[in-house]
Specification:
heterodimer; A: alpha+beta; Beta Polymerase, domain 2; 2 domains; five-stranded mixed sheet; three-stranded antiparallel sheet; 17 helices; 37% helix; 16% strand; B: mainly alpha; two-stranded antiparallel sheet
Amino acid sequence: MSLEQPHQLDVGETPEGELDYDALADLLGESVIDREEHINCEAFVIRPDDVARALSTLREEAGFDHLSCVTAQEYRDRYESIYHLKKYDDPTQELSLVVPTTRENPASQSGASVFDTANWHEREAYDLVGIEYDDHPDLRRILLPETWQGYPLSLDYNQDKPQIVPLREHVNPMETRNKGADDSDTMFLNIGPHHPATHGVLHLRTVLDGEQVVDVDPDIGYLHRCEEQMCQQSTYRHQIMPYPDRWDYISAGILNEWAYARAAEDLADLDVPEYAQVIRTMSAEMCRIAAHLLAVGTFALDIYGDFTAIFMYAITDRERIENLLEDLTGQRLMFNYLRLGGVAWDLPEPRDRYFEKVREFTDQFPDRLEEYHNLLTNNELFQMRVIDTGILPPEEAKRYGCTGPVLRGSGVDYDLRRDDPYGYYDELEWDVITDDGCDNFARARVRLEEMRQSIRIIEQCVDLLEEWPEDDRQIQSNVPRTLKPDSDTEIYRAVEGAKGELGIYIRSDGTDKPARFKIRSPAFCNLQSLEVMAEGEYVPDMVAALGSLDIVLGEVDR
Amino acid sequence: MTLLPEQIGDLLGLSGLPAEIIGGLIGATIIGSIILANAALAGPWAKRKITAAFTDRISVNKFGPWGVGIIIPDAVRLLSKELIVPEGVDRPAWDLAPLIIASSALLGFAVIPMGSLGPIEFHLADPEIGLIFVFAIASIASLGLVMAGYASNNKYSLMGGLRAVAQNLAYEIPLILVGISVVIFAGSLQMSEIVAAQAQTLVELGPVDIPMWFAILNPFAFVLFLAANVAEVGRNPFDIPEAPTEIVAGYQTEYSSVYFVLFYLGEFVHIFLGGALIATIFLGGPAGPILPGFVWFLIKIWAVFLLTQWMRSALPRVRIDQLIEIGWKGLLVGAFLNLFLTAGIVGVLAI
């Protein structure tokens, strides 16, 4: 990306940084059956038995090293898995692989041998839609209980019929996977779903050798609330927007709302007034600070082991930013502030008083940040605990589809706010923070420093808003009351959420409700990399690694 | 100096064996009540207030002066909880563990000279092996931890119990070695002798006499003992056997209601016993200007309590392997060095 390093052009890449889809189609040769036009990029229809080869060719030769998401959906006549590919170097270069299968035999080849992240994505597709993946290492349900009947997002599923899953069906979690227990002296341990360090209802099936972790298998889905299906039953214009607040509910609401807003606005070709973009940028960064504060606070909680000073300090600061957000949006957590084509309302009156409050916060926050550094990153005991534990090498991080502070803590310079600009970010001065440490310490430090950058962004936004001419303060563009995007248009768009790349896939069928609404949750993808970080480490380090991943189960399970 | 049981015996006009038994019982009741009152103040109230002060909060403030009345509803709450006995626990051991933990810490106070308040001397017994007795009694708590960890039929408890053993092994030896260095100074294991040895004047700075407290004489030993003591009572940064974010609550995971209270109580009494030991062998026991000795003694043990709470608020927990390393490679070596150092100091003073 940067001008200093001459960038070796990948196959199918033009010197201008555009993609030459014809060259890519030639690269894949006979695997490509057909080509489709999605709004975000072109899509190749791939033979279902050729997925792994196509993915690995694209990764090795065309540089598509980021499998952002796998969307599965059912049509009247077929099933489809869409592999959304990107490049970590330049996420605007996108390519989708559409893998169709027949309704009679919904099986296609798995991509998990090429991208580890496909493992969980395909399990989710199997769980919710019912597509089977050949050669998948571990194809079983991921969000729903093992005994669930049917596939909830398939067309013939009876959604009105309740299913009761009794505890006795799941009373023995040892039955499933317990590798290493036979040949060595190991102990199986259920960590969670009710455990002080799992940050919610996460269940880690762990095999321990003494205090060392031999194998860890996260069991998720305890907080699955059918968010995708609820969005599919809601109208674009009014009913979907409140849901994103409930994914990453730890105050990252506006960041999530923006993911939906961005995808839907691009899908329906809506404009957003610049003034609204500045307000969005400011409020989103406030949310990021609130989310990172909680992340750092709970990480400290995991290391310190009690609700001690750092956690309380972080909560105190988060209170201040919640107050600012409450003044702006009227809410402290479930903001529901963004609208398609803008924001819900203008800044609170009197504006001067609001700017004063925000400036008060941004002025004193760097000092608070120093205090966090003194308590955390400069603390020798803390360093002793977290440096060189929970190692996530950059290559592994990419294969696992990690994004956000987790990826940047592994030294990969990737931030959608800069690399795939939206909102007002490309007009502002700020830096992407990376750290080559690859360990728990690096991830915590990245979050701390990102807050400083967010403060810079907020300061610039406040300056802009203060001087914005009064007759040009348009907060929403004209959006039809009933929004019906064109039939059979598909889009996948992502924004930089608090935990990483939060992507939304929407397929329109011409009605006012999406035909398919898929959420690419960053925490879901990041959590899968726990096995890389934890195996071979001690239990306390696994807990620290989990804390440094900063997962929110609401977003993991959706 | 007459000990508390004798004073009570005299007061009741008894003599001989009945005086010893009855005086001893009443004396033990008094001392035990004082310690328990301190623990009651520390657990539900002081701990909250201190942590709140460290973390910019207010904490309990509605009931009684400074919220001190919270002790009563808290006690009612804790005692009225249902006692849940999990399936498959090893019954006598499971029931005995909390009793052992709570009582072992209390027993240690039998030989601690707690100073006088007016005519009353708060000191139950003064055997010649006083210091060894305290160490031995305090170590019985480890047995309780292992029993609790093993008998609970819970993997987290088992891990907590194993961690407790590993930790206590790593810390008891340096602790006792540092204690021995004090014995070299004082020339006696008897608590009253140790306190008396510290009453001498080290140097005179104008009108102020600096006493020969061993903490002043040998700060190195004092620091070692403080560190080992924190590990011994299992507080941050060494609260590894409980480590809530790792192994839920360690050995006490399966305990509820009264048994939980006993654990909780045992912990606080243990902190106070650690404080009492530090006060006795390093800080001149109940010695201090103006105020009565008993008050000074309380001030000293509460200072140690405050220190543990301070560390709890400010220090991260170390990992179990790091703790073992600190114990065996750091503190043990330090403790042996300290023995040589002490021998040197004693030699110089003797000249």
